[in-house]
Amino acid sequence: MAIANITKDIMYEAVSPDDFESMLELDRYGRRSTAFDKIISATHDHFWDPLDKKYIDFDEPWDMETQPLVPDDMIMSLQTDYVSGHLSDPRERTRFINEMTLWQFSSILHGEQGALNLSASLCHVLKDQGAQEYAANQTREEARHVTAFAKYIKARWGRPRPCGQTLQTLLVEIIGAPEVYKKIIGMQMLVEGLAMGAFASFYRNINDPLGKKLMQLVMTDEAFHHKFGKIWADRTVPKLSTEERDMVEDWAAHCFQSLLFNMGSPTQQAAVYRDFGLDPDKVVEGLRALMTDEKRRQRMKSQTNIFRVLIKTLLGAGLITDRTRAFYGTYVDMDELKAEGDRMVGDDIADEGIEYLREINFRGREGAALIAAE
Fold first, then answer.
1. Residues 69-110 pLDDT 10s
2. Under 8 Å between Cβ of 333 and 302
3. DSSP annotation of 126
C-alpha cells in the first residue's frame, strides 16, 4: 500500500476507506499536523451561504430570449462559417449561445459534485487530524458550490445538461482511486486548476451580473482548495524515487489529456447541435479547419485559458520533467510559462471577493480578528 499511496510525509498517511479501526488509535489523537491550520482558519474570511440573499440573490432577472449570457467569441463553434451562417437570426443565435453556456455550466456543476464526493472520500482515508479537518472543510465548501450552481442553472434554464462521458469517466476514476496521490493530483490540482481558469474566464466575460457574482464567490473557496494540492506537491515530489516520479507524472499527463479532450471536443456537445438543426459532423469538420495548432497556441496565450492554467499548475508542482515537457510544449511556450511566476490566474479576483465577504461577515463586529490566508 505504501507504493500505491506514495506517502512521503506523515500528514498524508492514508488507510483503506473501510479501515475505521485505524482512526481509533489512541496515539493518533495526540498527533496533528499544523500545515493546513491557516487554510482552515481562513474559512471564516470567505464564508458565504448560497441560500442567503445578502450574499447572492438567485431571483435577479435575466432575459434569456434576447440577452446572450456571454460574447460570441466564447462559443468556438460560432466562429465557423457553418454554424454562424445557420444561426443568422439574432434570437436563435442568442438561444444557441445560452444553450452552449448551459453545457459549460452543467460541466462545472458535475465537476463540483465530483469535488464534493472526493473531499468526503479523503476524510475516510487520511489519518492526520489536520489533513482530515481540511478535507471536511472542503467537503462543506464544495457542497455549497453544488447548491449554488444548481440554483443558478434552475434560475436561468430550469435543468442541467447530462455530464459529458469523458468528464464523467475521469471523475469516477479519480473518486474511486484507492491511491491518495491520484485523488490529489486529479482533483485538488487539475480539476481545481481547470475550475479556477474557467471561473476567471467567465468572471471577466459573462454579461449576467448574477453569474459574475457567483463565479467570484466560488473562487474565494477554490483558491484555497488549490493550495492543499500545492502543499502535497511541495512535500512529496522532491522525495520521489525515479519509479514513483514517472508514475505520478504519467498520471498527471493522463488527467490533463482527459480534461483537454472533454472540454475541447465538439463531439461532447453533439446533442446541443442537433437541437438547433445542426449536423454535429459538419460542426466538427468546421472546428478542425479552424483550430490549427498555431490557432490553439494563440488561444493558450490567454492568462485565463483553462489548459494554460492546468499546465502552469503541473509545472509549479514539479510534475513536468524532460520526459513530458515536449507533450505540454505542443500547447504553450514552457519558458514563457515558467517566467510568469507562482501567482495563479484568479488569485486577484478571489482576493477581492474575500474583502467583499469580510465586509458582510464582520460588519458591526469591531475588533474581530480577520485571519488572512497565506
1. 999 999 989 999 999 999 999 999 999 999 999 999 999 999
2. no
3. B
d(CA 369, CA 335): 41
Pull the grid cell for residue 34: 499544523
Give the helix ranges, DSSP H, for 276-345: 280-290, 293-299, 306-316, 325-329, 334-339
Q: What is the DSSP letter of 161?
A: P
Q: Which residues contact 74 (CB under 8 A, 6 or more apart)?
A: 101, 201, 205
Each as own residue / partner, the long-range contacts of residues 245-251 (CB below 8 Å, 24 or more positions apart, any chain) are 245/321, 246/323, 247/6, 248/6, 248/181, 248/185, 248/319, 249/319, 249/320, 249/321, 249/323, 249/324, 250/324, 251/181, 251/182, 251/185, 251/186
Rounded CA-CA distance 184/233 in Å is 9
The distance from CA 228 to its chain's CA centroid, rounded to whole angstroms, is: 13
Type of residue at 349: I
Predicted pLDDT at 265: 66
pTM reported for the whole predicted model: 0.89
* Integer Cα distance of 71 and 115 in angstroms: 29
d(CA 102, CA 161): 7
Distances (CA, A) of 42 to 12, 108, 200: 21, 24, 21
